[in-house]
Design brief:
377 residues, 9-stranded mixed beta sheet, 11 helices
Length: 377
Amino acid sequence: MLNHVKVLAEEIGPRGSCTAEEKKAADYIKNELSAMGLLPQLESFKAVTSFSWAFIGIYLLFVVAAVAFPFRPALGFAFALLGLVAFYFESNTFPFFSRFIPKKPSQNVVATIPARSKTLRKVVVMAHYDSSRSAWNFSPQMVKNFRLSYLLMTGAMVLMTVLYALGTWSPISPFLLWLLSLPPAVYLFITLLSLVHRELKGVYTPGANDNASGVAVLLEVAKILKKHPPLTTRVTLVATGAEESGTNGVLAFLRRHRPAKDTFFINLDNLGIGRTAVITREGILGGKPASPELLFLARQVCREKKIEASFRPYSLLTTDGTATLFRGYRTVSIMAFDEKGLLPHWHWPTDRAEHVRAENLETAKELVMGLIRGIES
C-alpha cells in the first residue's frame, strides 16, 4: 500500500482536479485494477477546476449587496439573500453557481466485483485521488482555526442578510443598519481576496495523506476481494476525480449509475496519519449522521479485531461521504486525525509520502474488510 502512496504522491506528484496529472493517476489506478484481473472503466465527466470560483461569486454578492443597500435597500437584501442560499447549497455538495462555471474533463475509475451467487446487497467503496491547491488558511499556523473562521464567515453572511431584511421591511433606519453591516462585509471581502490569492499563489499539494492513502487502501481491498469475493454482496470500487473542486466525481457517479437507496457507501479519506476514526456525522453546516448499521458493524469489527479507532464527528470541508449522506445513502467515512483533532498536513505542500504510516493503512484495510464481511453476514 505504501508503494501506491509513493507512486501517486511522488512519481506522479500533485494531482489537481482536471489536470494532466490527475489523468495520469487515473490511468495508474486503472492499470493496477486491470493487473488484478478486474475490468475497470474510466468514466469521463466535466467538472469545475476549483471550488474557489463558486465561493468567490458568493462573497462578491455580499460585497455588491453592501454597495447597493444604501441606495436600493431591497436590491441589497436580494443580493445578500441570493448569496446566502447559494452558500448553503454549495456548502452541502449541491451545485448552485458551480452549474454555470466553465468546466474541464475529469474521470472516475470504476470496477465491480460481482457476488459469487445471487446479489442481495450492494456496497460502494470510494476514495478520491486528486489533490488540493494550498491556501493560507490551511497553513500550520491557521488551520487549527479553520472551523472557527468558517463559522464566523457564515455568521457574517446571516447577519448581513438579517440587517438588510430589517432595512427593507422595518422602520429601523437603513443607514444605521448599513453601518452595522460594514464589519461583516469587510470580513467577507477579505475572505474573497484569500480565495483569489489561493488561485494565484497556491500550489497543488502532493496529496499523500489526502488522498493517496485512501486510494492505496481501496486497491488493497480490491486485491483481496478479487481473490475472495463475497457470496451475496456486489462490491463496486470507485476512485473519484475532481473531489477537491467540489465532490464532482461522486456526483458524476451517482448521476450515471443511480444506485439504489439500499446501497452501502464506505468512503476512505485522509487516513494515513494519526489515529484512525470512524465518522459518526459529517457536514460543516448542520451535518448528517452516518449509517447506524455501518456504525454498529464498525464497532463490532473494532472489538473483534482489537482495532483502536475513535468514533467521532467530522465538521470540516465536505468529502465524498458528505455527498452520499446528503442524498440519503447509507454511508460511513473512515479517516484519521492527529492529537489535536486535525487532519495532518491538510491541503499543504508538506503532505508527502514520507509521513504516511503503513500501520494506518493496514488498520483502515481491516476496517473496510470487516465492514464488507459484516454486511455480507
